[in-house]
């Protein structure tokens, strides 16, 4: 019996994005769901920095195509025998697991515990822009920084979001504002500054200049929370100076340099990392929290409290367009998200 095939985009070699073989169109066997897996028909995908970091040049080759992609919106095609949360025909969105093949394929397997019901008011392209950035922003704010969901608790409290115009920053800005915090975003260009203000930031400062003088200029000596979404080591001293005593700093950006944690000691500052793949990577007992938070994001979107951050949509989903999307992200100057729609 002939096995059913599907289109996908993958790589055998880790090459610069200018090389046409850095991402190629391939045909793979259509997978079958087992356990708590859903088989999802992929309607739209979006691209994140993790995609080009995984794809970046390195001295090894794959014997079978490696498929990237950790943002999907689609329709459940089949469910595994142990599934309880979704049924065939359900519209879903999710980021998936870094430990498994990514979503840049016509069909994709994903554990239902890290999947949410797609916002009903968004199309698939708009929904595909949200999962990875929403999970990262949500976990950073509420799990890592322990920010309250109660607006009354956050009255008078401030958060500085470094890199507020990017994918995660665009969601974090909206969630922080929704939670009642005073939001200070960083941006460096007129278009990114405008974008951050449009998303609800109360103030915008420039991340290329010292933070404290800029904060003082808008009326703040220090901030209660810092969320770093860009170059942890570059901003380390600025963050240490700007954070309030007993404040909290969270970063999502790994560093090649040693960080001087002693800078945080006298203020008894908490520093914490966030990686949205941790729960799925380690199969933590609370994996289902990502299902719950994605459903909550969908509710906030449908209520108009959070908006999608799609900024550019490319059609169709193929290697040529995916290479374009990777190249755009590698400039470090994208505002919002780049989405691909339709195989």
TrEMBL record:
| Chief location category | cytoplasm
Q: Which InterPro entries match?
A: ADH-like_N (IPR013154), ADH_Zn_typ-1 (IPR014182), ER (IPR020843), GroES-like_sf (IPR011032), NAD(P)-bd_dom_sf (IPR036291), Quin_OxRdtase/zeta-crystal_CS (IPR002364), Zinc-ADH_QOR/CCCR (IPR051603)
Protein keywords: Cytoplasm, Metal-binding, NADP, Oxidoreductase, RNA-binding, Zinc
Q: Does the keyword Metal-binding apply?
A: yes
Q: SUPFAM superfamilies attached here? A: GroES-like, NAD(P)-binding Rossmann-fold domains
Which residue numbers delimit the Enoyl reductase (ER) domain?
18-340
What is the annotated localization of this protein? Answer: Cytoplasm
Cited NCBIfam families: adh_fam_1
Q: Quaternary form? A: Homotetramer.
What is stated as this protein's family in its record?
Belongs to the zinc-containing alcohol dehydrogenase family. Quinone oxidoreductase subfamily.
Task: Kindly give the PANTHER family that the UniProt entry links to this protein.
Answer: QUINONE OXIDOREDUCTASE
Q: Report what the protein is called.
A: Zinc-type alcohol dehydrogenase-like protein
Q: Which organism is it from?
A: Paenibacillus zeirhizosphaerae
């Amino acid at each position: 019996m002939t096995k059913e095939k599907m289109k996908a985009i993958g790589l055998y070699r880790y090459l610069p994005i200018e090389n046409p073989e850095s991402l190629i169109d391939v045909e793979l066997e259509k997978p079958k769901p087992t356990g708590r897996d859903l088989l999802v028909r992929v309607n739209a995908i979006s691209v994140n920095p993790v995609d080009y970091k995984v794809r970046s040049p390195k001295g090894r080759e794959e014997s079978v195509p490696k498929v990237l992609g950790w943002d999907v919106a689609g329709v459940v095609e089949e469910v595994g025998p142990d599934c309880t949360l979704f049924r065939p025909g359900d519209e879903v969105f999710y980021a998936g697991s870094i430990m498994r093949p990514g979503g840049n394929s016509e069909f994709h397997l994903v554990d239902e515990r890290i999947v949410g019901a797609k916002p009903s008011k968004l199309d698939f392209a708009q929904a595909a822009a949200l999962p990875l950035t929403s999970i990262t922003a949500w976990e950073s704010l509420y799990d890592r920084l322990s920010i309250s969901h109660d607006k009354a608790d956050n009255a008078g409290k401030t958060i500085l979001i470094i890199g507020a115009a990017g994918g995660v920053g665009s969601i974090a800005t909206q969630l922080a504002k929704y939670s009642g915090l005073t939001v200070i975003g960083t941006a460096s260009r007129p278009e990114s500054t405008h974008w951050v203000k449009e998303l609800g930031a109360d103030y915008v400062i420039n991340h290329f200049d010292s933070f404290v003088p800029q904060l003082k200029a808008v009326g703040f000596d220090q901030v209660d929370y810092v969320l770093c979404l860009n170059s942890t080591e570059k901003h380390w001293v600025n963050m240490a100076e700007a954070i309030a005593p007993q404040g909290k700093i969270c970063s999502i950006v790994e560093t090649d340099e040693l960080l001087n944690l002693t800078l945080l000691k006298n203020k008894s500052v908490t520093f914490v990392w966030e990686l949205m793949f941790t729960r799925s990577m380690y199969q933590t007992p609370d994996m289902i929290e990502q299902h719950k938070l994605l459903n909550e994001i969908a509710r906030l979107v449908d209520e108009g409290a959070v908006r999608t951050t799609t900024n550019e949509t490319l059609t169709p989903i193929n290697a040529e367009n995916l290479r374009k999307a990777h190249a755009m992200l590698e400039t470090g100057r994208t505002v919002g998200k780049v989405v691909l729609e339709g195989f």
